[in-house]
Amino acid sequence: MTENRVAIYLRLSKEDIDKKDFSESIQNQRRMLLQKVQEEGWSIFDIYIDEDYSGIDRERPAFLRMLKDCEQGKIDIVLCKSQSRFSRDLEIIEQYIHNKFKEWNVRFISLIDHADTSVEENKKSRQINALMNEWYLEDSSMNIRKTLRNKKEAGLFTGSFAPFGYQKKDKNHLEIDPIASKYVQQIYALYVKGYGYSKIKQYLNHQQVPTPSQYKKEIGSKYYGPSTGNSWSEKTIADILKNEVYIGSVVQGKYRKISYKNKKVISLKKKDWIVVPHQHKPIISLPIWNEVQKRIHQKIRIQSKTGKIHELSKKIYCQKCGQSFEKNSSGRTSYSYLVCRDRRNHWQHCDNRASIRLDVIESLVLKEFLKFYHQFADEQLLLQYENQYSIEQNLLCKQACERLENDYHQKERTLKKLYEDYIHQELDDEVFQNLKKSYVKELEQIKNTLTSMKKEKMPFSFRKRKPMISLKVAKSFIQRIQIGNMEHGKRVVIIEWIF
Ligand SMILES: [Zn+2]
Q1: Of the chain's two ends, which shows fewer C-beta atoms within 10 Å, N or C?
Q2: What is the chain's alpha carbon radius of gyration, rounded to the nearest angstrom?
Q3: Distance of alpha carbon 386 from alpha carbon 9, whole angstroms
Q4: Ligand 1 centroid to 315 CA: how many Å?
């Protein structure tokens, strides 16, 4: 006979408090679960309470303590108000309710959504509940994001910490920090004077000007942001010189979290940032700002104009003197020309003086590569190539997968809609349960097909199809290219391949 020692689990999250949903209150959950225990004549082992924790959080202290007690065989039944109180994370539901609990002989019961692991046919509905709980979380995280975005678009500063040079006046506004703002002005002044990033860096370090993170520590702010270290870097200086916050704009939305589950952050392109001008007092005057921006862009332009970068750069050499062939900066036509480095710098030691058009070399490389491609098409290299670049064939397979995936999501959305109708009592229980069952089956089938498709390697018809070769692909197989002297209007071009 089982003892029926019960673990009561209660959880309250910020979302619930914000919604002012008192039915979710700890007292309410406790009252409901205690009544159930009493009715069934079970005994209580312990009551576990996590307050202010989200259902997606895996590090809830009471939750972890309860799992440990379950593992140690102290508990026969875990009792919650709903499955979402236990977890809103599908993976956790699978891992514990459907696997570990079975292993540990623990029965899981949630009252309002009628989950009970002692009833076998209950499993599908528990999985669906878990899916719906994730949807709910996604919705609410989308809502939070939307509110935050609205605030940002209205020019309210939503960051936790003010940018260097400013301090927070109240929750959403910035005001000038009298000390740090002087450092910012100094950096701008030095740049206008003609100092480069590296020279400014040396100067600031020599003068022992505190870096942004040092300064935050000095004024006693609890700063968790990216550390700029104890000495100035060129990047920190460049960031300060380009930050529009110093002319009074609030600049936000530079980064985005991947999703509510994945906390990883990606940087957004500048055109997608949210910039709202005239929100606080500027530290830098507009004429100085414009001058600095002009200089920064000039510098970039000069670098790219005289730059030696092209698709085949560092691959092309002079057959005569062995130096590299580089872009010639005297751009008379719209074509790019390459010349021996000796000629470009007017050293006059090498007699290989004629230039060659970059696009001529490029098409030559492609033509030759195609010849080789057919020779090694059956070999190991092909596989390597296939892995490195997605080509047409893979695209076809991908497209088929995408279609299936779309289909899957479409069905999932429909099911979600049905669920919403059901919640709003526009669909009766039996109809919904039947629909749910058929949808779940279809979703499962699609998922299985997708898994097997993705497991398959290269499509069978691969060898018969014409390959799509790009310069980028060809380039990766080039050791180097040698350009010989021009003789009677002809010149030797030697392409050394890796294979
Ligand atoms: Zn040369």
Answers
A1: N
A2: 33
A3: 52
A4: 14
Taking the chain, what is the end-to-end CA distance rounded to the nearest angstrom?
73
Ligand 1 centre distance from Cα of residue 367 (Å): 25
Q: Give the distance (Å) from ligand 1 centre to CA of residue 331.
A: 20
Please state the domain extents for the chain: 5-148, 154-301, 306-390+467-499, 392-464
Q: Which of 315, 336, 333, 335 is nearest to 324 (CA)?
A: 315
The reported pLDDT for the residue numbered 227 is 59
| Residue position matching structure tokens 């080789």 | 372
Q: How far apart are CA 125 and CA 156, in angstroms?
A: 44
> For residue 398, what pLDDT band results from cuts at 50, 70 and 90?
confident
Distance 477 CA to ligand 1 centre (A): 24
Q: How far apart are CA 133 and CA 54, in angstroms?
A: 12
The secondary structure element, H or E, covering residue 277 is: none
Q: Does domain 5-148 have CATH number 3.20.20.140?
A: no
C-alpha atoms less than 13 angstroms from C-alpha of 374 in its C-beta half-sphere: 8
What separation in Å is there between the alpha carbon of 484 and the centre of ligand 1? 9
Half-sphere exposure of 31 (CA within 13 A, CB side): 7
Ligand 1 centroid–CA 348 distance in Å is 9
Q: Which residue has the tokens 């097997």?
A: 452
Residues whose CB is less than 8 angstroms from the CB of residue 113 and which lie 6 or more positions away in sequence, other chains included: 82, 83, 84, 129
Measured in Å, residue 485 CA sits from the centre of ligand 1 at 9
Contacts of 173 (CB under 8 A, 6+ apart): 156, 157, 279, 280
Judge if 5-148 and 154-301 fold alike in CATH terms: no
Structural element, H or E, at residue 419: helix 392-423
| DSSP helix/strand/coil, 20 | coil
The pLDDT tens digits for 345-379 are: 888 889 998 888 888 888 888 888 777 666 555 44
Look at the block and give the residue holding tokens 């699978």: 94
**Given phi > 0 = left and psi -120 to 50 = alpha, else beta, which region is 368?**
alpha
370 CA → ligand 1 middle, Å: 29
CB-based contact 176:165 (threshold 8 Å): yes
- Ligand 1 center–CA 308 separation, angstroms: 16
Q: For residue 403, what pLDDT band results from cuts at 50, 70 and 90?
A: confident
Q: Can you give the pLDDT at residue 182?
A: 94
Q: What is the domain class of 154-301 according to CATH? A: alpha beta
Q: Burial code of 92-125, b = ≥16 C-beta within 10 A, e = fewer?
A: bbeebbeeebeebebbbbbbebebebeeeeeeeb
- Whether the CB-CB separation of 66 and 48 falls below 8 Å is answered with yes
Distance 306 CA to ligand 1 centre (A): 19
Q: Tokens representing 164?
A: 């260097």
